[in-house]
Specification:
single chain; alpha+beta; 2 domains; two-stranded antiparallel sheet; elongated; binds zinc ion; DUF7562; Small CPxCG-related zinc finger protein
Length: 93
């Protein structure tokens, strides 16, 4: 473990919850824009989780999650909202 390296900057991987040294972690910006650093707080992934990350475009995903009430509604209501939003977007009337 990292016990011998006290007082180092340690971050938590958002995917697996592992504590990793900041220098061994990868920054993750949930908006997919790591180049704009203003007023931002990055999250972190450990290297194995970063490798597993899909690098496909995910445009609109965060907005959809926000609109669906992620983190605010209970899971059942969130999933229902998310489902409705995605369905509505994929099947134009
Ligand atoms: Zn991880």
């Amino acid at each position: 473990m990292l016990g011998s390296r006290r007082s180092r900057d340690v971050v938590t991987c958002i995917a697996c919850g592992e504590s990793v040294d900041r220098t061994d972690a990868r920054e993750y910006d949930k908006h997919g824009d790591r180049w704009n650093r203003r007023d931002k707080e990055f999250e972190y992934l450990c290297k194995p989780c970063h490798r597993d990350l899909t690098h496909q475009p995910r445009s609109g995903l965060e907005d959809t999650l926000d609109d669906a009430g992620a983190g605010e509604l209970d899971q059942a209501r969130f999933l229902q909202q998310y489902h409705d939003l995605v369905r509505g977007r994929d099947s134009p009337k």
